[in-house]
Design a protein that fits this description.
Elements (H helix, E strand, L loop, with lengths): L1 E6 L9 H4 L2 E3 L2 E4 L2 E4 L6 H10 L5 E3 L3 H13 L3 E5 L8 H8 L6 E3 L7 H10 L7 H11 L3 E6 L4 H5 L5 H7 L4 E7 L6 E8 L1 H15 L8 E4 L4 H9 L2 H4 L6 E2 L2 H7 L4 E6 L3
Parallel strand pairs: 1-2, 1-6, 6-7, 11-12
Antiparallel strand pairs: 3-4, 3-5, 8-9, 8-13, 9-10, 11-13
Length: 277
């Protein structure tokens, strides 16, 4: 059997593990003097109470490598093979650490997803179609799908991405103008967070996301993942603006887990989808 291990940067919730047949490594979040395990002892509501209410900027760090090693050792002892899907190597050191840790283990494949949040959810759902296939076959399917993942979002402010080291100073300065709404992409080729557009006004920025969806097209084999942080009002409006032929493929709203929400800040929103072949 093939087991799948993701980190909490996938925004897959602990209560979804059985439904999606995954195991989750929680990233660590430091808020003030207190360290939490993402999604384990820090709920989304508790996170925002501290983040917004107390105005504490969080710091995130890698999941426990000892926990990862123990989990995977247990899987292998049970006769299973393992695919590990951490968030993009360009925004976290988790991939590099786990790749090194399991480099000599033929039953473990650590894949650079070059994505996060809903992109990883889509990869997990792809793997679920082929659990009875070989490890090589499933790894190939995942690597074929990764370059087609599209992640486009509008943060309320670039401050959080910049402070967290996920956005360059040049991109931060370019997008941080009054009434300019930046479009941020997680590039599926490089795995980097990029400023891909600047539009004056929120409505025009929403229209730009929709236009990008129309330009690449959406592969109807996969759900579109609508994501947001804290407040979903803008996401509701974005979906209302989207052509009905795409709306029928919308998956459940994903309120991002704290480990990613702290870098996007509150009131961010956007789409993740698979472009047409």
């Amino acid at each position: 059997m093939i087991r799948v291990l993701v980190d909490s940067g996938s925004s897959i919730k602990q209560e979804e593990k059985e439904k999606l047949n995954v195991d989750i490594l929680p990233l660590k979040i430091l808020m003030g003097e207190t360290e939490y395990l993402d999604g384990v002892n820090l709920s989304i509501d508790e996170f925002y109470k501290i983040f917004i209410g107390e105005k504490i900027f969080p710091k995130t760090s890698l999941p426990s490598l000892e926990m990862a090693q123990n989990m995977i050792k247990k899987f292998i002892e049970m006769g299973d093979e393992v695919i590990v899907l951490p968030i993009s190597s360009k925004i976290s050191g988790t991939y590099s650490s786990l790749k090194m840790l399991f480099s000599e283990e033929p039953k473990v494949r650590v894949i650079d997803t070059r994505s996060a949040v809903g992109g990883i959810r889509i990869l997990v759902e792809e793997i679920n179609k082929y659990r009875d296939k070989s490890l090589d076959f499933v790894e190939k399917k995942v690597n074929e799908l990764i370059p087609r993942l599209k992640v486009i979002a509008i943060p309320e402010s670039l401050e959080y991405l910049y402070k967290g080291g996920r956005l360059s100073k040049a991109a931060y300065l370019a997008g941080n103008l009054m009434n300019i709404k930046p479009l941020i992409s997680l590039d599926s080729i490089s795995g980097e967070v990029k400023l891909v557009g600047k539009v004056r006004g929120l409505k025009k920025a929403m229209k730009e996301i929709v236009e990008r969806l129309y330009e690449t097209g959406h592969d109807p084999e996969y759900k579109i993942v609508p994501s947001y942080t804290y407040n979903k009002d803008n996401l509701d409006e974005l979906i209302e603006m989207t052509d009905p032929k795409y709306r029928e493929y919308m998956g459940e709203y994903d309120n991002l887990d704290p480990a990613l929400a702290c870098h996007w800040g509150p009131n961010a929103f956007g789409y993740i989808w698979v472009e047409n072949k």
